[in-house]
Design a protein that fits this description.
By secondary structure, this protein is of the alpha/beta class. The chain folds into two domains: 3-146, Spore Coat Polysaccharide Biosynthesis Protein SpsA, Chain A (Alpha-Beta Complex), CATH 3.90.550; 201-410, Spore Coat Polysaccharide Biosynthesis Protein SpsA, Chain A. The protein is 34% helix and 23% strand. The protein contains 15 helices and 16 strands. It has helices spanning 9-17, 40-51, 96-102, 108-111, 118-126, 149-152, 162-179, 214-222, 243-247, 268-276, 299-310, 344-347, 362-368, 377-388, 414-443; strands at 3-5, 24-28, 34-36, 53-63, 69-72, 91-95, 130-142, 201-207, 230-236, 255-259, 284-287, 293-294, 314-322, 328-334, 358-361, 391-402. Strands 8, 9, 10, 11, 12, 13, 14, 15 and 16 form a nine-stranded mixed beta sheet that branches. Strands 1, 2, 3, 4, 5, 6 and 7 form a seven-stranded mixed beta sheet that branches. A hairpin with a 5-residue loop joins β4 (53-63) and β5 (69-72). α5 packs parallel to α7 (162-179) and α14 (377-388) runs parallel beside α15. The radius of gyration is 24 Å and the shape is globular. The N and C termini lie far apart (50 Å).
Length: 444
């Protein structure tokens, strides 16, 4: 079995040209130590041929330093699996003819890019083709990254990776243009002065079993210094650890505690909907997680001022990663400067988040509503809003995002990481199809 170590697309084309009778090529994407099943080549090529797949990949195992082996399942490839860190594993089988067709007019700038053009190639190859994820374990690789999921979470916005991210954005924007899924850059700006609201802004805090941190979050919200009326809406999602009782200790009429019906089994998105649909919600609904705090008592004022200055449907700030005691930790400031007014709504489909704190013009949220899930609900809402409306950005740190063992994403299993990624890929799929349809209708 011949395995080609991928360096760049030009090299791959040359390899295929010298093996013109081969229908498929096996590509190695990294240099991790490999142990390959003797049946790998035959099985992968059989499935690729039977399913007419342009790209085929499979589950794999990881060899740990102590000699043990752990399963590493992979995700199915969806229409919206367009994030540049999609996990194919170390080995993929490609249809040789599709490689040549997809790279026929390949720009030199992609071939010379930091990934040798792999991202651009696989995006092009996937257009209208079958990508086969085979749920069989056919090789093992040495694990080289032992970080927990929470420690890897912000790799994609680490400022040290700025050049790489700019390159990936260019590749992805070209792909969206070819696909017809680019959004128009004429963003709607809602009339934010319409309607009457009980207060100008509401800080919304969904919570479940965060007795150790909810007091800090509520105190941070109530301490905001603003020239308008605001309240704090905490939605307690059936806590059993004393969180609700702790909330009852606050003596402040601006604090409103709503309790979810246990029979609903609501996610974070359901808690958000409960808050924004309530009679207490203000003109703007501003996010604060139950284990985080605002960076100053001016955060709320800055966000509301941005709404009025830009007449946007959503405002997203920047945050500082800290430990539990608010000491900054790497990579520090997460400002999502990859967002631009001209291309942000497109590039947002490629990456896994929008930033924080997030704030919304309440009538727009009431029209859309959050999906009732506990992961990706904010991403889904932001993508939907960005398809149609202007989004304001604040690039100074407004928020301390505390990383500690109690974070829900601190140490996830590979199965849970896959489930989270699968859901966001689903959200991207829906959004990309909606944008394609909208562009088609507008061009009729």
């Amino acid at each position: 079995m011949k395995i080609i170590r991928f360096r760049n697309v030009a090299q791959l084309r040359d390899e295929i040209s010298t093996s013109s009778l081969e229908q498929f090529v096996t590509l190695r994407l990294d240099d991790r130590e490999l142990v390959i099943s003797p049946n790998f080549d035959k099985r992968m090529q059989q499935i690729a041929a039977d399913s007419d797949a342009t790209i085929s990949y499979c589950n794999y195992r990881e060899i740990l330093d102590d000699g043990s082996v752990e399963n590493h399942p992979v995700n199915d490839y969806q229409f919206g699996s367009v994030r540049d860190d999609f996990d194919f594993g170390s080995l993929v089988v490609l249809n040789a003819a599709d490689v040549l067709a997809a790279s026929e007019d390949f720009p030199d700038k992609w071939n010379d890019g930091p990934d040798g053009g792999w991202y651009a190639l696989r995006l092009r190859m996937s257009m209208g083709k079958t990508v086969a994820a085979i749920p069989e374990y056919m090789y093992s690789v040495r694990r080289v990254d032992y970080r927990k999921s929470g420690e890897k979470q912000h790799d994609y916005v680490d400022p040290r990776n700025e050049d790489y991210q700019n390159y990936m954005e260019d590749v992805f924007t070209d792909f969206l243009h070819e696909l017809g899924a680019e959004v128009s850059f004429v963003r709607k700006r809602p009339n934010i002065d319409r309607e009457e609201f009980p207060v100008e802004a509401s800080v919304v805090i969904p919570v479940k079993n965060r007795v150790a941190t909810i007091g800090d979050a509520v105190a941070s919200a109530l301490s905001q210094d603003a020239d308008f009326n605001f309240n704090v809406i905490v939605v307690d999602n059936c806590s059993t650890d004393g969180t609700y009782e702790h909330l009852m200790e606050f003596d402040d009429p601006r604090l409103i505690v709503l309790r979810m019906d246990p029979a609903l089994c609501a996610g974070i998105g359901g808690c958000w909907n409960h808050a924004v649909l309530s009679e207490h919600c203000g003109r703007f609904a501003v996010q604060l997680d139950s284990d985080d705090v605002y960076s100053s008592n001016e955060t709320l004022q800055k966000i509301v001022d941005k709404f009025h200055a830009d007449h946007c449907a959503m405002v997203v700030g920047s945050y500082m990663l800290t430990d539990f005691d608010l000491n900054p930790i790497p990579p520090g400031l997460i400002d999502h400067k990859e967002w631009t007014d001209s291309n942000g709504p497109n590039n947002a489909l490629r990456i896994n988040g929008f930033g924080a704190p997030r704030a919304f013009f309440t009538p727009v949220v009431r029209e859309i509503l959050f999906p009732d899930v506990s992961y990706g609900e904010d991403y889904a809402m932001a993508l939907r809003i960005s398809r149609e409306y202007a989004i304001g950005r604040i690039y100074e740190p407004l928020y301390y995002c505390r990383r500690w063992k109690g974070n829900s994403d601190a140490a996830l299993s590979i199965e849970k990481v896959n489930a989270n990624n699968e859901y966001k890929d689903f959200i991207r799929s829906v959004e990309m199809i909606a944008r394609m349809r909208e562009n088609y209708d507008n061009n009729e």
